[in-house]
Amino acid sequence: MRKLGQFIALVGALALGSGAAPVSASDKLYIYTENFPPYNMSATGRAFEHNGNEVDGICSEMVKAILDKSGLDHVIKLRNWDYGYKRALSKRNHGIFCTTYTEERAPNFKWVGPLTKNLWTIFAAAGTNLDIDKLEDTKGMLYGGFRNDVMTNYLLDRGYKVSEMESDDINPKRLELGQVDLWISDRLAGPYFASQQDVEGLEPVYSFNESELYLAMNPNTPDDVIQKLQESLEAIKESGMYQAIETKYGL
Predict the structure, then answer these.
(1) CA–CA distance from 162 to each of 14, 157, 182 (Å)?
(2) Are the C-beta atoms of residues 184 and 155 closer than 8 Å to each other?
(3) How far apart are CA 133 and CA 203, in angstroms?
(4) DSSP label at residue 30
(5) pLDDT over threshold 60, residue 133
(6) Which of 32, 36, 50, 196 lies deepest, with the highest CB count within 10 Å?
(7) Largest Cα–Cα distance of the chain, in whole Å?
(8) Strand, helix or coil at 130?
(9) Which of 44, 80, 52 is nearest to 170 (CA)?
(10) SS3 for 124?
């Protein structure tokens, strides 16, 4: 019995010496994003990615750096926004980026960030003669948007007409074809989506509501995990890595 007690004590000491017990599969973080260039995007041009190495973009590089610095076990997958958003809402240790922080969303997640900012922008088709001084000037016009997107929900909540898709990448072509009157997107992301669809000349006619983008984690994710992720964000800022990523993308 004495030898058994010594063995148990030795195992305990080794565990303490290693810093922490191995992370179990149930503790793995499952992080989702979408094709929303230049913030998040497939590096291969595919609609979905199972491997985080094939996910690129401003927020993607920042989140990868945070996760690597934290040492937490994780996977990153690229799916459509609605799929990833619902999993982050419903499953412990699941998260989604880059997510716009709003007062309405605040209680639904635990937040890591801010990672960066975006500027909501209304695009019209090439050659437009629209003169928009305020958002209300677009009342009665049909927007292109996508389901569970914060910009789409903002318009719907205020009585604007929005034709919602499962993802945003088809909306530039819909605007070009006249299937919608306007398209709401991000000032940087809009031109990327348009170029992917070989759509040229879309014109930004009005911008508003600069907002902050975060990694949003399921509310049942342990607080110490959130703290470690936030501390890792601060660490990559102090190291200069955060600024290097911004510079790479022209921010």
Answers:
(1) 59, 11, 9
(2) yes
(3) 15
(4) E
(5) yes
(6) 36
(7) 88
(8) coil
(9) 80
(10) strand
